[in-house]
Amino acid sequence: MSELTDRPSDDPYRRGTGEVVISARDLRIWYGTERGPVRAVDGVSFDLRAGETLGLVGESGCGKSTLGRGLLGLLPDGSKMDGTLQYRGEDILAMPARRRHDLRGTDLAMIFQEPLTRLNPLMRISEHFEEALNTHAPNLGRDQRRSRSLAILRTIGIPPTRYRSYPHEFSGGMRQRLMIALALVLEPAFVVADEPTTALDVLVEAQIIGILHDLRREIDTALLLITHNLGIVAEACNRVAVMYAGEIVELGEAAQVFRAPQHPYTRELLRSTISLSTTGLNFIPGAPPDLAAPPSGCRFHPRCPTAMRICPTRTPRMLPTTAGSLAACWLHQGGDELPAGAREPLERQEISVAEEA
Ligand code: SF4
């Protein structure tokens, strides 16, 4: 029996049915700097199952891209990662570098934001596919490589006649579709898509999300979709993880989290979203903290409209809420165990004192 199935059943992250493809527990990623370690990801836990899409949302600088890259072992030199990370029950952090390298491309893949910087302008699209398949599936014959490439091109709506074109002969939206095809041609079990629709217009964006949705279903891929766009998450994701200052602060079914957000940060993010019915602009005051020196206790407390006295002093844990999601917030936990006055509103001047301490 794998370590995955050995986990205690009261593990709040172990939910649903189907094969767990990626499992992270208390995952931390940090960079060494002159000012000390910058904890870009700090104690993150979640499961991702085959055929499931998890949306990862939060403001810029909250650690989303670092987490996505860390899951695939694509972190820059000087970064460190610890905690538990498993791929189909196999411990990724403990596996030999060679095995990790072999998994990338065949089992684990990434769709990047900027296709122009990833596609070689001197290589035809056919050569990009040849290179990917030669490297990761050397057993396939020439005809098989070609037919597999043409099949995925057809799936993403690019005619086979464009197979021998160069990247500059495609529009931005088509190039992004090519990136998706190149990432998925080996039918990986886990894909990270990092802002795959940034810089595309809304119609192309909708096409790309539709394609990802169909491909995920077709090949049963587990997809982590990193995005600023909450509309995309509502449209395309089964579940959503909300990240703030290196931590996941809410995790649950997307429909449920959008209907009844439990963490004040999720609530504020949703209030800041612009839609056709928006009459005024809302924004979250302040900015995400410096991850070299994050605020004490709940990291959102300096910006939280419902902060209480307990918030800067003790870190809330991720626990199930009555709405069904997991959230790290004292509004949903503590009960009678909290000291007297813990739930009193936190005055703004108390916040500045806590920050100086
Ligand atoms: Fe706000 Fe406190 Fe909840 Fe943090 S723990 S989100 S500061 S109420």
Describe the protein:
By secondary structure, this protein is of the alpha/beta class. The protein has a domain at 120-181. The chain has helices spanning 3-6, 64-71, 97-106, 115-118, 125-136, 142-155, 172-184, 202-219, 230-236, 254-259, 264-271, 348-356, and strands at 20-33, 36-49, 53-57, 79-87, 90-91, 108-111, 190-194, 222-226, 239-244, 247-253, 319-320, 326-327. It has an 8-stranded mixed sheet, with helices on both faces. Strand 7, helix 8 (202-219) and strand 8 form a beta-alpha-beta unit. Helix 7 runs parallel beside helix 8 (202-219). The longest helix is centred in the middle third of the chain and has 18 residues, at 202-219. The protein is globular. Iron/sulfur cluster binds next to loops.
If you average the pLDDT, what whole number results?
A: 89
- Terminal CA distance: 48 Å
Instruction: Please provide the ordered H/E string of secondary-structure elements.
Output: HEEEHEEHEHHHHEHEHEEHHEEH
Number of strands: 12
Query: Which of globular, elongated, flat, extended, rod-shaped describes the shape?
Result: globular
Helix content: 25-40%
- Rg is 22 Å
| Number of helical elements | 12
Q: Which consecutive residue ranges, at least 5 long each, have pLDDT under 50?
A: 1-8
Strands side by side in the biggest sheet: 6-7-8-3-9-10-12-11
Structural class: alpha/beta
Ligand names: iron/sulfur cluster
What does the largest sheet look like? 8 strands, mixed
Strand content: 15-25%
List keywords for this structure.
4-stranded antiparallel sheet, 8-stranded mixed sheet, binds iron/sulfur cluster, 357 residues, alpha/beta, globular
